[in-house]
Amino acid sequence: MRLSRFHLHTTKETPADAELVSHKLMLRAGMIRKLAAGLYTWSPLGLRVLRKVERIVREEMDRAGAIELQLPTIQPRELWEETGRWEKFGGQLLKIRDRKEAEYCFSPTAEEAITDYARQELSSYKQLPVNFYQIHTKFRDEIRPRFGVMRAREFLMKDAYSFHVNDADLVREYENMKAAYTRIFTRLGLQFRAVQADSGAIGGDASQEFHVLADSGEDAIAFSTGSDYAANVEAAVAAGPGPRPAPAEELRRVQTPTQKTCEEVAALLGIPLSRTVKSVAVIAGDGSFVLALVRGDHAVNEIKLGKVPGVGEYRMAGEAEILEHLGCEPGFLGPLGPRKPVRVVADREVAALADFVIGANEPGFHLTGVNWGRDLPEPDAVADIRNVVEGDRAIDGGRIRLARGIEVGHVFQLGRKYSQAMGFTVLDENGKAVVPTMGCYGIGVSRIVAAAIEQNHDQAGIIWPEPMAPWTVAICVINPKKDPKVDEAAESLLQELKTAGVDAVLDDRGLRPGAMFADIELIGIPHRVVVSERGLAAGTFEYRARRASESEALDRAQLLQHLGVA
Amino acid sequence: MRLSRFHLHTTKETPADAELVSHKLMLRAGMIRKLAAGLYTWSPLGLRVLRKVERIVREEMDRAGAIELQLPTIQPRELWEETGRWEKFGGQLLKIRDRKEAEYCFSPTAEEAITDYARQELSSYKQLPVNFYQIHTKFRDEIRPRFGVMRAREFLMKDAYSFHVNDADLVREYENMKAAYTRIFTRLGLQFRAVQADSGAIGGDASQEFHVLADSGEDAIAFSTGSDYAANVEAAVAAGPGPRPAPAEELRRVQTPTQKTCEEVAALLGIPLSRTVKSVAVIAGDGSFVLALVRGDHAVNEIKLGKVPGVGEYRMAGEAEILEHLGCEPGFLGPLGPRKPVRVVADREVAALADFVIGANEPGFHLTGVNWGRDLPEPDAVADIRNVVEGDRAIDGGRIRLARGIEVGHVFQLGRKYSQAMGFTVLDENGKAVVPTMGCYGIGVSRIVAAAIEQNHDQAGIIWPEPMAPWTVAICVINPKKDPKVDEAAESLLQELKTAGVDAVLDDRGLRPGAMFADIELIGIPHRVVVSERGLAAGTFEYRARRASESEALDRAQLLQHLGVA
C-alpha cells in the first residue's frame, strides 16, 4: 500500500467535544467521523484496524468450534414480545414501524432471533451442542451517546449463542469460550483481565466480563498478583484473616469529645486505623436492627452485606431508630451494651481482631482494648462484608491490586430463560422433549479499538499493539520522486516486507519529514523506517520503534531482523 | 472442515411460498431462513457462499484502487433533506424515530452520507480523484418483498462513490469500474452481460447495468454474438439496413376484406411478413398527427420513437383523429394519400424497402408494390424506432440474441447532482472553488448468490461455480468410524487438499450414501469424492463432478489431478 493512493486525513486540532483520549486521537487520526449523535463513519484508516480485530475474533471463534451465521439487524416485535423484552428492554431498543405499520426493532442483541432460528433448525439432542455466532452491526439507543465509538449507538459486535441439553455441557462450553476470549485478547496484544461479575440483573446463572485495563476505564476491578483471579471491586474477595490473637489490653473507656470518625479516633489515640471498628446501623429486610462491623480502614460492601442470611434488602437506619436501639447518636456507636437487642454482623477481619476500639454508645466516648468473648459476646454472624483494598492478601496467596477497566467482552450462562419463554424444545436420548439450556458470549469489536487506544498512547498519539495496527511498518520516503535510487530502495523494501507477510505502507506523499513523522506517530504505526538519500549513501535506513525515543541507523539485514523478517 | 462439526440442515420439501427456483433451493439447502417478511437469516452454509462473493468483490475493488470505509446504516433525516430525497425516495425509505423523536432512516443507498463524509474530508483537487466503497447492510422497504434474498428488504450491497474535479476523469474512473465489474463477474464464474441501460429516472449522465443471464430474469436484454455489446431490449440497437433496392413491381390495389393485421395480409398475399409495413398513428408532443412506420415483423419502440425530433412525448391517436387525417378506420391505414397532411416517420428498415405493402386508407383494401419516391414522397424522417429482434444484424457485425437477465450491478455517472445540492466544493489548481463530479457503482452482493443459482441448477439442486461454492470438494465417507483405514484415508485427503489451498469438507455424519449424496448435490458442491472400504481395497476413490452424470474410479494421483492439485 502507498499512502499517496490511500485516503489519510489527520488534524492537529483536538476536537472540542471529545473527552476521552481515544475519542480525541481517533478523530485527530481521521479514523472516524461523526455522522450524527452516536453514529460514526469508519474511515479507510479506522476500518483497517476494525477489520484486524474482527479477523482475530473470527479466527479464534472458529478455532473454538463456534459456527458463524448472520441474523437480520431488523427484527419483528412479535419475537421480542415472546420473551417480554419488547417492553422490558427499555429505551435502548430502537423501535421502528415499516410502511405497513408493522413494528420492528434494530437488534441490540439477538437472543430472540437466534432462539427462533434454533427452534426452526434444531429438533434432536444429536444436533447439540452447537454454538452459533455472528459479527454484525448492532444498535442501542443510548440516551447520552458519547466517548466516540466507546459508547456509540451503532456499533460492531460479535455475539455468540450456544445450546445444550444439560447444564454440565453448558459449563464446558462456557469454559471453552473463556479460553477463546483469553486467546483473542492475548493475540490482540492487550492487557486485560477476565473479571468475575455479579450476574445481578442479567438473569443468568454465571457470568464473567473481560476488561481491557486502562486508567480511564469506567469500572473498578480488583485482581491478584498470584493468579488470573480478577473481579469487579464489588464482587472481589480477599483471603480471610489469620487466627484471632489473645487479649493483651484491658477494656478502657476513653474520652473522644469531638472524634466521631475512625480516622479521628485513631489519630487521637495514636493507633493504626486497622485497630478501630466502624459500626454501621442498618434495618434488615425483615425489619430487624442490625449492626454491621467493619474495620476502620475498610468499607461495607452492600452486595455482600445483603447476602448475609437475615439481612437481605436492607436500608440504612434512621437517627430515631439508632437512638431507640443503641441509646446514642451516630459517631459514637458500638456493639457493646445496646439499649435494645441488636444483631451484630462482623466482617471476618473484625471477628479476628483483639484489643480493638469501638464507640461506647455514649456521646464523646469510645472503648479501647475491646475483645470478643471477654467484653462482648461473639458476633451473631461473621462474614465477608467489606470491599477489598489494594494490598489485601488474595485467596491464591498473591496480593490484591486495584485497577480500572473497560468492558470489551462478557460470557454468560443464560440457562433456559429464552428457550423456555420461546417454547424451544429438542428430543433427548429417550425421545422426551427437553428445553435446551443456553450460553451467550459477546465481544464489543468496535469498542476494542477505542479501549486499545486508552491503554496504549502517548503525547504523540496512538501506539498500536502490532496485531491491531493499520500497518505494522511505515516506510517513510524523504523527498520522493527526486532521486530514483531512494524510490527504488523504498519500493524494494516494501515488496520484500509484503513477500514476508509484513503489512507495510509506503509514505510517498512528499510531506516534509516533520509532518510525515508526526502523522505516522499519531496513527500509531509500530515500526518506522526512513529511506533518504543521505541514509542510502551510508548504506543505512533510519529505524525507530513507536515506543522508542531514539532512532537507529541500520543496514538492510539488521533492519529486516528488527522487523522480524529472517 | 468436518460436517459433523458444522450445522447443515437440508429439507426435501419444497417450501410452499417460494416461487423462484433459487428461493426454493436456498430454503431446501438451509442456506437461509425467514425471520419475517423480506428478512432472512444467513445460515452457516449460506454465509460461506455470501462471504466468498464478498471477498472477490473486495479484492477487485481494492485492485481497482477503490478505498474501503464504512458508513453508518442509520442516517439522519437532515442529510436526506439536503438532497430532497427524504420525500422523493418514496416508500422504500425506512424512516425511524429515536427515543428523542429525532428522525433517521435505514440507509437504502448512501450518496448523502458519503458526500457528507467527502465534504468534511476533501478540500483540495490534490485529494481527488478518490473512490470510496463499502460492503454493508442496506434496507429497502419493498412493498411486496419476495423471491427470498433476490428481493429482500435487508440485503448486503457493495456501494462505491467516486469524486472528480472534471468530467473526463469521471469517465476514466467509470471505465475503470466497468473493467473491475467485468473481472468480478468473470471470477465468480457467472455468465453475464454489461448492459446499456436508458439512464432515465436515475438522474445521471451515463449508466450501465450488469446482468446475470438466467431464464427467470426480470429484465429482457439483447446482446451481440460479435462483441460484448449488450443492452436492455428497450435500448438495444441493431445495424442499419443495406441500400434500398430498385422498384421491381407495379403499384396495385388489392382486396383484403377482413385482413387487418400485417400477419393476415402477408398470409393472404403469400408474401413474407417483412415486406409488409405497419402504420401506427400517434399524436406528437406538439399536437401534430404522425404516422410511424415499422415493418410488419417489427414493433415500435416507444422510447426511440419519442426521441425522434418533433415527436416527443406522444400518445396513440384516437379513432376520430385517425378518421379526420386519413379518412379511414384502423386496420387499413397507410401513408399514401392522407385526407389531411401528416408527418411520416419511417423506421430505417422501412425506408430501405422496395415493393412493400401498406394499407390503402380504404376499408378492405391494401396496396402492394409500393415504392418510395415513385408512389410516395420520401418519409419526413427516417430513424431507428423499432425494438430489436432475435437474429438482427448487430452493429459489430455479429447477430443480436435476446435473453433474460437479473440485475446484480450498476455503474452510474452521477455528475454534480449530490455534490451541488450538498454544497460540496474543493479548490482547483487555481484556488477556485469547484463542485466535484461524482460516479456511483453498486453491486448486490446477496442478490448475486440467488442469481447464480437461477443460472446454475438442475433437478438435484444447486450447481455452484467453483469460486462461490461453500466448499469446492466434498469428501464423502461411507460408514465412518467403522474401518479406521477409511477414516484415515479421508482425513489424509482432507489435509492434503487443505495444504494445497483447496476448500474441502469431510462428510463424516454417517448418513446412508443416498441421503449423503442427495445433500451434497442439493448444496451444489462442484466435486464429490467417495471414500469407502471397497474403494480403498481397489486402491481407488469414486469421483464425480457435480455436472457429470457418471462417477469415475480414480487412484489418488488421478484424483488430485482432477481436483487441480499438482
UniProtKB/TrEMBL annotation, chains A, B:
InterPro entries: aa-tRNA-synt_IIb, aa-tRNA-synth_II, aa-tRNA-synth_II/BPL/LPL, Anticodon-bd, Anticodon-bd_dom_sf, Pro-tRNA-ligase_IIa, Pro-tRNA-synth_IIa_bac-type, Pro-tRNA-Synthase_IIa_type1. Its EC number is 6.1.1.15. It is an enzyme of class 6 (ligase). GO terms for cellular component: cytosol. It is found in: Cytoplasm. Keywords: Aminoacyl-tRNA synthetase, ATP-binding, Cytoplasm, Ligase, Nucleotide-binding, Protein biosynthesis. GO terms for biological process: prolyl-tRNA aminoacylation. CDD domains: ProRS-INS (cd04334), ProRS_anticodon_short (cd00861), ProRS_core_prok (cd00779). One of its GO terms (molecular function) is aminoacyl-tRNA deacylase activity. It catalyses: tRNA(Pro) + L-proline + ATP = L-prolyl-tRNA(Pro) + AMP + diphosphate. Gene3D superfamilies: Anticodon-binding domain, Bira Bifunctional Protein, Domain 2, YbaK/aminoacyl-tRNA synthetase-associated domain. Its main location: cytoplasm. Residues 38-465 form the Aminoacyl-transfer RNA synthetases class-II family profile domain. It holds the Pfam family tRNA_edit. It comes from the Bacteria. Homodimer. Consists of three domains: the N-terminal catalytic domain, the editing domain and the C-terminal anticodon-binding domain. Catalyzes the attachment of proline to tRNA(Pro) in a two-step reaction: proline is first activated by ATP to form Pro-AMP and then transferred to the acceptor end of tRNA(Pro). As ProRS can inadvertently accommodate and process non-cognate amino acids such as alanine and cysteine, to avoid such errors it has two additional distinct editing activities against alanine. One activity is designated as 'pretransfer' editing and involves the tRNA(Pro)-independent hydrolysis of activated Ala-AMP. This is Proline--tRNA ligase. It comes from Pseudoxanthomonas taiwanensis. The gene is proS.
